[in-house]
Amino acid sequence: MDAALAQIELPQPFDAWFAARGWRPRAHQLAMLDEARAGRDALLIAPTGGGKTLAGFLPSLIQLAERPRPNAPPGVHTLYISPLKALAVDIERNLMAPISEMGLSIKAESRTGDTGMARRQRQRVKPPDILLTTPEQLALFCAWEGARLYFADLACVIIDEVHSVWPSKRGDLLALDLARLQQFAPAMRRVGLSATVDDPAVIQRWMAPRPGAEVDLVLGAPGAPPVVDILLSGGEVPWAGHTAHHAMAEVYDVIRKARIALVFVNTRFQAEFAFQELWRLNEDNLPIALHHGSLAAEQRRKVEAAMARGALRAVVCTSTLDLGIDWGDVDLVIQLASPKGASRMVQRIGRANHRLDEPSHALFVPANRFEMLECQAAREAIAENALDSEPERVGALDVLAQHIMGLACSEPFDLVALYDELRTAGPYRDLTWEDYEQVVDFVSTGGYALKTYDRFRRIVQGLDGLWRVRNEETALRHRMNVGAIVSPAMLSVRISSGRRSTPGRKIGEVEEGYLEVLEPGDTFVFAGQVWRLMGVTGTDVLVTSAAGEDAKMPSWGGSKFALSTFLAKRVRELMSDGDHWAVLPGDVREWLEVQRDRSAIPARDEMLLETFPHGQRHFMVVYPFEGRLALTTLAMLLTRRLERLGVGPLGFVCNDYALTIWSLKPMDRLDFADLFAEDMLGDDLEAWLAESAMMKGAFKACALISGLIERRFRQDKKSGRQISFSTDLVYDVLRRHQPDHLLLRAARADAAKGMVDVARLAQLLVRIKGRIRHAALDHLSPFSVPMMLEIGRQRSPGTAGEMILADAAETLIAEATA
Amino acid sequence: MSAIAFARSGCGGVVARVGEAEALLRAAGALWLAAARTLVVADLHFEKGSAYAARGQMLPPYDTAETLRRLAAEVEALAPATVVFLGDSFHDGHGEARMARPYAEALVALARGRTLVWVVGNHDVDGPANLPGEVVETLRIEGLTLRHEPEAGAQDGEAAGHLHPCARVSGPGRSVRRSCFVTDGRRIVLPAFGAYAGGLNVRDKAFAALFAVPPLAVALGPRHAQPIGWRRLVGD
């Protein structure tokens, strides 16, 4: 501890409280106290188990304890923002202990979407000293008429898990709301709490209350480095596959020896599959539970509660448990199939063992050989504490539209003053006046070139020059639609009862589209049991029990997350460096060696491209290692080009590492420099993107967030399905009649960034320019085998709607003429 | 299934027998009765966008223009003597008043040299007040009764709208949902022609009582309409 910090003393009763527990305040806790006394904004980066939350709250608790009681200001003193409702509630409980043990007269209360009406109303009239809430609730507060008065005394805002919030639309919304709070309470301090990140400066800039303002960085002592092992079943790694089915017996064995294990997988199907497999092996009847986003909320709460009680030995889970409340007893994290990114993996590993001085234990279970390379690369990155980095965030315009509408609902605004306020928010520093005016016009009338809606304005400019909401009804409707998370429409899974198949007991919820690959009569696993799909009526999925039967398992190659740029680079480096292969298991090493002899191993800055005939077809396999999203986009664009070249492409498959295209004619004589030229990101991309389901999905999200389409009506809740249909209609009409409309721009930016990953594809094309290593082969290569095995097992994203319909029609015509 | 007679047409549509009439089911969603040179379109819902805007939801104000563009393309291709609007031509009773002048003028131009017939629907019970053409409850052409809302129970020789039928077909890994015609060879329900008109899945129970045999759906597409058998259709 440095000398200056050692000078800081805790006042009573805090000092006594620490001493009674045999604790000494940690250096970063004192440093945060120092920041608070100096009135400075601070970002605390500390590993889990480092007393981070207490470090965040300690200064506020002390200030509140010392504040002269009679003159106590009536408003909220400290506002705590958590990305998770459960976390806000958990922190409330954890704060109670020091408050009551020290006998402090401080009121700390949570407020989330689940908080009852009575408590909400009481909180408005009598604000707690410390309010714990979520970004969505804060947005609602900012759209309330009483907001300015309510937050006038705000001294401090604490943003927990800031590393997970800032690079998203929720982060944009939060940054805007912080800018508003700063207007209400200019002296308000900002405190960020974050897990270890690659580049803290990006978060510091995001948090800063105005351009150029400094946010101090406080670093907690690093924890013991984690111990990461890789599980090799019988010392071997399979050629292909995504489920790690081969290693399940060993995984079960490891769970048996651990106290409590978290088993992370990448998709919900994998979660169901692994859960099923583990229970098949579970001779000891260990309490093993399942947790993923498609299960009903109350079911997930039950699992979380059982976990908190220490009643479970393992939970199979998806990213739903990446963040969350502390479970002290977890001592092992198992990652089934590849980790996809180093930062997320560190986060997951941090879920085990919340004691700083002991290392966390993690076990990677690669499902195939490329994943073995990825697991090894991730393991090395974690050992070096090298993490994925995130680019600077540019605030989304649909979020801005929602925010501006909210402000108009709260109080009248001046156009120029608001522009200045918005640009104090990190992601909106570079907002141009043109874009700002367009967004205001959008909020008011929809922002159309055809000015027919002027008489229906949602916000109006008064004689005083200020803009305000049209009427209370409009404000009410806006408040019902606040938030930057667009959740997919959910269907209820219900047990079908009686001969008429009426919906019975609800066993969970699934996202629309989750069961799309199944037909009535098919069996599937859900919530850990086998069911037969009877049909879908309205928003109910009807099922009957099919216990004991084998479930049809859609092979779901894709993961929600694509391989990160950073980890991809490390995989390429590992692969290109023959001396490095010694760390790999024998069969994987041999696979690389045979690949080197029969085809080629690309140098670290090269991209390998193989062509070979197989069966009646010609194949091209490309290995860019750039993540599934960018490669899918690349495959779509290459297919269009090959079509024009008369090669007759028939189909393609992609994963995180490579893409395979097969065709009628050989492709080994093509001009590859030309084929992979950067100009493919021009008209071809535009044309393909405009028609793609991804673009429609992005537009839908923008339409909901911006308030063009309402999520909730006052009386009846319009079903998600209808919304989905009508935004597609709106998209088609808008695209034809006003292609430069604000929302189309916003949707294009989102699609290019997220689902289509155009930026990454552009980087790839630059990286491989002049560095394509072509291997013209007369047979399969070792690398291509896993890709060839994917064909026919993956759902093909390229199947156009027209082809599905034409196919259905042909079947019908064949039937009719038979 | 064999009771329903249909064939692909060179124009991308599907020719089907409905009652005694031979009908061309156009890929764009219009019904063409060649013998009577009559074009039938259902559920245009003109000015639906402005109806929403009046309630504070600013949908793009281009739906009327888009629907008129599609209609003009069909008229251009077929040169009908009569155009029948099969009800719910306007989204609400004030739709005609909200319609911008250029669109009304486009309808006047469309009426030149041909007859417009406005069948009334539940959204527009009185029919247009100032636009050219006749306003009727029902109409008989080629042995078909044209009305807005299908009569209950299986019917012979009827063409109606109102239900906005939609077909969903599952393919590998995804499904497609499109507006469609639906017919059992005795009656036909037309898809909604309007740019903002949504759809109701033909597997919905609203359709169940209308047909004597499992009907055929003809799904709309950019170039081709596709006949889809009942068994290939899935619910939403």
Short summary:
The complex is a heterodimer of chains A (about 800) and B (about 240). Chain A is an alpha/beta fold and about 800 residues long.
Report on the structure:
The complex is a heterodimer of chains A (818) and B (236). Chain A has 818 residues and is of the alpha/beta class. Chain A contains 31 helices and 25 strands. In chain A, the strands form five sheets. In chain A, strands 3-4-2-5-6-1-7 form a seven-stranded parallel beta sheet, with helices on both faces. In chain A, strand 23 (649-654) and strand 24 form a beta hairpin. Chain A is globular and about 85 Å long. The model of chain A is unreliable at 554-558, 714-725 and 794-800 (pLDDT under 50). Chain B is an alpha/beta fold and 236 residues long. Chain B has five helices and 17 strands. In chain B, the strands form two sheets. In chain B, strands 9, 10, 11, 12, 13, 14, 15, 16 and 17 form a nine-stranded mixed beta sheet that branches. An eight-stranded mixed beta sheet of chain B has the order 1-2-3-4-5-6-7-8, covered by helices on one side. In chain B, a hairpin with a 5-residue loop joins strand 3 (21-25) and strand 4. Chain B is globular. Chains A and B meet through helix 20, strand 19, helix 27 and helix 31 of A and helix 1, helix 2, strand 12, strand 13 and strand 17 of B.
